[in-house]
Amino acid sequence: MTRRALSSTPRRVEAARALTLAGLMMLAAHGIARAETTGPASATVCEGCHGLHGEGNAPAGIPRLAGQSAEYLSKQLEDYASGDRANPVMQNFAKALSHADIEAVATYFSTADAPRTVIPSTASVPQLALGRRLARQGSEAKRVQACDSCHGPDGIGVLHAAPYLAGQSVQYLTSALTSFQLRTRKNDPGKLMTSVAGQLSASDIAAAAAYFSSLPTGTP
Amino acid sequence: MNKVTRRSFVAGIGAASVLPAASALSEEPPASPPSSHTPAVTQAAPPAIYLFFNAGEVAFIEAACERLIPADEHGPGALAAGVPNYLDKQLGGAWGAGERLYRSGPWTAGSASQGYQLPFTPGELFHQALRAIIHDLDSRGTPFSKMTADAQDAYLKSLEGGDTDLNGVPSGVFFGMLLQMTVEGFFSDPVYGGNRDMVAWRMIGFPGAYADYYESIDRHGVKFEREPMSLGEDGERHIHPDPNIPAHL
Amino acid sequence: MVQRLKEVDVVVIGVGMVGSIVAKELAAAGYKVVGLERGEARFTVPQFQSPAIHDELRFDIRKALMQDNTREAVTFRNQSAEKALPIRRWESFLPGTGLGGSMVHWNGQTYRFQANDFELATRTRERYGSNFLDPDVTIQDWGVTYSELEPHYDRFEYLLGTSGKAGNIKGQIVPGGDPFESPRSREYPTPPQKEHYSGAMFRKAASSLGYHPFPQPSSNLSQPYTNPEGVKLNACVFCGFCERYACEHFAKSVPQTIILPVLLANPNFELRTGCQVQRINLDSTRKKATGVTYIDAAGKEFEQPASLVITSSFALNNVRMLLLSRIGAPYDPATAKGVVGRNYAYQTMSSVASFFDEDVFINPFMASGASGTLINDFAGDNFDHSGLGFIGGSFIGAVNTNGRPIQYHPVPPGTPSWGKGWKDAVVKHYNHTVMFSLHGSSVSTRQNYLDLDPTYKDAWGQPLLRMTFDFPQNDLKMAAYVTAKAVEIGKAMGAKQVAGSPRKAPYTTTQYQTTHNTGGTVMGSDPSTSVVNRYLQSWDVPNVFVIGASVYPQNASWNPTDTLGALTYWAIDAIKNKYLKNPGRLVSA
Fold it and tell me: Helix (H, G, I), strand (E, B), or coil: what is residue C337?
């Protein structure tokens, strides 16, 4: 694409395109056979992109699901289906699932045993420091509270409140914060994330995503 | 390791880089699963290192606290929860030395409505009273820790209801402070050295310091199920003690 | 050696809620304003952040956000015949300190007083006759009416973004709100917060008894909001660490989240923290203030000259400031002469505990400071007091603000205070109890007053404020009556056991009962029974204004903050549009 075309394409469409492309490539590259599945039948199609154990594909921006709160995963699938969380690829997958399927898939990934990972970070030291400051203190100037206050110490998540961020894909975290900012993702309780993301600059978002992504996650 | 204490954090307000956390980022992957669903690491209670209480005082305090909040089918009592350790750190710290206490005289006994009117700091009060109590128990022949539970309770009740002078401390005032601090040590955040592994919070279902209930509040009548979380825990669910948090911002 | 500074237009003593609003308005109008705050500056980031702020021992028990009582306390006695002794640890009331003042750690309960309250003496006489009250009750009219204050209430509530449901808009009763409220000009700025389970139970039970439940007006916001000053707030997440704590989420309306960004950006305003004002200085006529004297954190003494002095510190501290400055005649109960310190009142708090079976999960820890459900059927003069022998009343509500376990572990009466029996009861009842708050009015009397203590001093060598107070019979009768009514609501909720705890004498400083201390620099139309006129201007020294709950002639059935906010805008209006255009007495004596 030419630079002109890129700058005239809305960012949300770009993001969706990137994920769609990646998703299709994943399916093609992995071609997971039914026989290799360890979870319920409904999880097979998820594994194509999200991995056999929900470990995700960080560079492709496909989020890790392993160990994520089942309640959170269910809600996201319901919201993808309804459009409260806009994503053409996920919407199609979510719409194809019954409520029982959603529960089964969410439960499976929430207890999935994904290996310990530490994603190598390419972020600069100042960027990580800014991310850590936003995570642990927030910013008075930007009027945002510490991410950890809801997302837990070192971003490990807090049940019934907020998902884990630790060890999540940088690309995914960036796109999630951006989608809150652009209001293509409208499923945040109390508009809490919309309020936060609305105050952050692109470099704040990049820093927070880089920091949380650099934290260890998973089981050894 | 460069530990940033809360005191230095408070002192450094205005400096951009001071952070409230106690732990440095580790390079090593941690040994246990860092999920908020898994229980906090419950270790066998290491023996507390007492800095304020001497050995004789420890024997009384440990046994007395355990009578105030005993171990039972609901869960551990004050001793296993580390309450004597909490008392030790509070009484030996700024609080024990008179933090948040108006200390000017003259001192006159007042009415019940007028509250505490003794010149003692909490630390002084405990040492004074315990000296009298231990002396009294020595003269009776049986150390408190060797009495039956009933006998211990009877002794504590005599302190509670009585006006006995314990080196200038009315026994009811001493008992009141002991009970108040025992409840504090049981239910406060484990950073202060009590409520070990959040046993007291788990017992009653109090979720602790991470507290976003925006969605949960809609689930009327549904029991809230989540592991309690301490303000001092890190991403591996290890709790970093910090008994010197000041009683000011 | 006192250093004399360059004169400014206005000195504001105390940069809390009132000081922040006053300073912002006057600085915006072009005046040079110096704000003197005894405490330190603090902001949402980093000082209010969690999880560190969610520390019950530190903030609830040790009172970390409160005024430093090691250097300045208050002395207390129930009666004049006793010797007052220092309150050596804050318990009953908890004065704040620091930038933003006690609003930083309030609960956000935001109610207006009713029209009747502002003319309490006249209306009580009209309705119940001149002999209805006990002879030592000294309630008075305020000198200002509700309808004069209404636009200022509205302005204050929109500054905060208060979440609620109107019950009376311009005389039209609106379903879902409080039908007893006096008319407001429009809806609340944001809708009510979500209802807690205990509130839903209360609502059903109260309705079944013919009462009128409504959502508690809350300044812990239900949704994101940008106020008229352009400052943004977020939605509250019901963390249950509201009163005595600062909010990490920018969701509680406090000076830092509603006005300080605007004030601090104005170069006409200068904030000086760590400054303990010693007195307001007067000229030789003693009818004009020349400025204030203060001592900074390093112990240096300064004189700050100013054309206008506004004392906007906590109610008790306002009274003390006038006494130390010798502005106005101190009240002496023996002779009934003097006015400064007169008509001190408080709040008459009772409670009801309703105990349920262990399969009923209340989850008390999920709450904001104002996410309750209430009735005003027994508040103020909303019910006929004929034959009851008292005036006033309480709001009654399921006001669940927290489940913080050091202080909150309700047990039925008769439970031992320690041991296995206590532990059993705590486990059995912690998550299965609903607590009602009965928030009662407080009449003023001849005997309850404030003055300077003859013995005890603060760290600067100045006499402490002395408080002489006990509950009047009027209020004790009121407490017994409303508690009995509230117990019936508990029973209607289907509780297994309901225990009422009506307020009893004597008043004790050892149990928390709100920080709603009022009076001492009462406002009114008659200088012989008031310290300030209806514009909160000192009768004695026209270039001194006193803005605080110290101007209340008596206290009503509701929390004082909303009314103080309205009076602040009312006074600012008079200062900007009348006083500063033509300095002098705004009301002839």
Answer: strand
Instruction: Reply yes or no on whether the pLDDT at B101 is more than 50.
Output: yes
* Residues B60-86 pLDDT 10s: 999 999 999 999 999 999 999 999 999
Report the DSSP pairing between strands A138-139 and A144-145. Answer: antiparallel
Which candidate, B36, B79, B33, places its Cα nearest to that of B58?
Answer: B79
Q: What is the ipTM of this complex?
A: 0.96
Chain C residues whose beta carbon lies within 8 Å of the beta carbon of residue B74 = 423-424, 427
- Determine the Cα–Cα distance for residues C37 and C260; give it in Å rounded to an integer: 14
**Cβ–Cβ contact C117 with A under 8 A:** no
Whole-number pLDDT of residue B45: 57
The residues spanned by each domain of chain A are: 1-37, 41-110, 125-213
Residue A201: other Cβ atoms inside 10 A: 10
What is the strand order of the sheet C373-375 is part of?
A: C214-215, C373-375, C394-398, C433-440, C348-355, C497-501
Per-residue pLDDT at A14: 47
pLDDT higher than 70, residue B110: yes
Cα A172 from Cα B63, distance rounded (Å):
55
Superfamily of domain A41-110 in CATH is Cytochrome c-like domain (1.10.760.10)
pTM passes above 0.95: no
Residue A31 pLDDT > 50 = no
Let me know if the fold of A41-110 is the same as that of A125-213.
yes
Chain A residue with Cα closest to C52 = A149
C404 contacts C56 by C-beta, under 8 angstroms: yes
The SS3 call for residue C383 is coil
Q: Where are the domains of chain B?
A: 1-22+35-96+118-249
pLDDT at A220: 61
Provide CB contacts within 8 A for C577, sequence distance 6+. Answer: none
Tokens of B105: 């005289």
Decide if C586 is inside a domain.
no
Q: Is residue C588 part of a domain?
A: no
Let me know if domain A125-213 sits in CATH 3.40.190.290.
Answer: no
pLDDT in tens, C424-453: 999 999 999 999 999 999 999 999 999 999
| Number of structural domains in chain C | 1
Average pLDDT over residues C552-563: 98
Does C431 touch chain A if contact means CB atoms closer than 8 Å? no
Strand partners, C349: C439
Could you list the residue range(s) of the whole structural domain that residue C331 is in?
Answer: 3-579
Q: Chain A interface residues facing chain C, Cβ-Cβ under 8 Å? A: 136-140, 143-146, 148-150, 153, 161, 190-192, 194-196, 199
List the catalytic residues of C. 516
Classify residue B139 as exposed, middle or buried by CB count within 10 Å of its CB (0-12, 13-18, 19+): exposed
